[in-house]
Amino acid sequence: HLLGMKTAQNIGDLGAMAMTHVRVVTLVLLLMGATSHANRLVEIEDSEQRVRTTVEVLSSHASRLTGYSGSEHAAGWIHDQLVDLDLGTVHQETLAVTVPIEIGGHSRLHLLDEGRDLTIYGLWPNGPRTTTTGPQGLSGPLVYLGHGEYEEFDGRRLDGSIALMEFDSWDHWLRAASLGAVAVVFIAPDEATYRETLDKSTLEPVNIPRFWIDAKQGNELRRRLREPEDQLSVRLDSRMDWQEVSAWNLWVEIAGSDSLLAEDRIVVQAYYDGVAATPSLAPSAESASSAAALLEVARHLRDHPPERTVLVLFTGAHFQALSGVVDFLNRHMRTHKHYVKQMTEPLPTKLFISLDLSTKTDQLGIWNNTYDFGLKRFFVPFGRRFTRYAEEVGPILGRDSTGVLVNGISPIRGMDWSTFVP
User: Fold this and answer.
1) SS3 label, residue 315
2) Residue 374 and residue 308: Cα distance in Å, rounded?
3) Which of 98, 152, 181, 202 counts the highest number of beta carbons within 10 A?
4) CATH number of the domain at 133-237, out of 3.50.30.30, 3.30.70.100, 3.40.50.150, 3.40.47.10?
5) Is residue 123 within 8 Å of residue 276, measured between CB atoms?
6) Mean pLDDT for all residues in the chain
7) What distance in Å separates the CA atoms of residue 184 and residue 236, rounded to the nearest whole number?
8) pLDDT higher for 315 or 37?
């Protein structure tokens, strides 16, 4: 048993819970308090309601990106839930990362002829270049360029313009920039995809501020700019600074109940911060599902003590190059001689299980962290074990076991993880 559960039924319960709420599990072999008492999970009996409450609480702020209020609130709230579970000492470790902070929480689009301001949000920086426009702002005619197809540019004067474009336009904003546009405002789509989001910034310091405007205001502007000769005089005002901020890792260790197996430590980890194309507008309800599931795992382990020692870990700064989990490894788990003397509290670990969850599917996917065939052999038994779990849990969920689990450790018919992640 991975966690040393005393009965097969306990593993089945845990598997059923995971199958319901979890999409992706990555297996990696490694050999604050001060929040309100409202929404205390310990007082909620229904597991589905607890998960819903966690997602709602964590996504209740405008942004959960590291450095914004939502991230600090999430860390404090999760700390309180772990204390309520009474699993043991809740450890809190601080690390520093650098992130783009939009001053004032948003930017502004001024309609100069009307004396009216519209709220907009700066997009992720182009490399180091943020959306800052300077004290005088950035002025020009606002022109509508649709999805950025070249035929949509016909008859429109782009030099010195501020382009209004549909968000689902790939990287065609670069076309507008190459023809003279000095900034771009994207209209929020009905649904944004990960791929489209990646296309809205570059790693190069391209000097083109880009912004997001909500659909209602964006649609109004689109209606007024349908014809090539239609223009609106506007000014953009934005300030986004790179700032060093704090993030926190939270962990609690549940001692194993078996005198022999207790030395085998297992870490189960999830991140609690969020991310979006717009740093100051990232409530990130979707990515809150990882932390929600891990809180349920913690509760399950409280009620069903494991034979092996389990460390439950919530990491911050996930979307800053995995800084949270890297900091934890540096403090506790590096075994290379270069790092071992730098560890502050060694925590020898047999297995590291990372939850990276999403909705819109009830499949469970398992992957490992290496392409090295010399190491992948260590993960193959886990793939087989989870396949057996799927055969047990599938009927409980009314599902064919082949549709419940995606085994990415030993890919079936050559379909690795990239086949299943959009």
Assistant:
1) strand
2) 27
3) 181
4) 3.50.30.30
5) no
6) 89
7) 10
8) 315
